[in-house]
Fold this protein.
Amino acid sequence: MIGIYRRQLDNEPYDEALYKTESSYFQKQYQEEVQAVTIDLYAEKTARFAPEKSDLVKLVGGGEDIWKRELYVNILLPTLQNAWSAEWMRLDWEKSRKLIEAVNEKLAAMLSQPCFSG
């Protein structure tokens, strides 16, 4: 993968089909690690702000995907400097997690019911 990527960066000929396959595999395999690094970089940038501003910016950030949001909260919650912002993030995630669990329970119930065709 790295060799193909280097050839692409250097504008040298490379196997495009292999690159697509390998990059897709890489993204699936390491997406959580890449996301964690992105969140860490975000935390470093927001650390330059005053504590309240830093916390406020962290409260409005985060991913749309459930796993990204959970990772975001797990990494950034300990970095919040104000009790109010930490409690806000914790309660917001708890509320979201309960909604996700409720939806998953309903989906599981729907899938366990027999289907009728007419």
